[in-house]
UniProtKB/TrEMBL annotation:
This is Uncharacterized protein. Keywords: Membrane, Transmembrane, Transmembrane helix. The chain crosses the membrane at residues 40-61. It comes from Streptomyces bathyalis. The lineage of its organism: Bacteria, Bacillati, Actinomycetota, Actinomycetes, Kitasatosporales.
Amino acid sequence: MFRRGESVPFAFIADADRFRSNVTPPPPAQRSVTEKAGSALFGLTVVAGLVGSLILGVPALDPERQSQHHGPTAAESR
């Protein structure tokens, strides 16, 4: 019987490590001025939201302000 010299039935699997493609990926698309401005506006909105939450949240966490609570709490009213 005739035997072939290939150890695998598909020759392209054995030769895959030697293969180099001549196809190059396309260059990345340039962003327009509108897209850049939109990204900057979105980033500014996120930063402003974080700063605003800090401005409103830090005084609420102040322990001296919490001790000035007016009126009875639920546990004291029983």
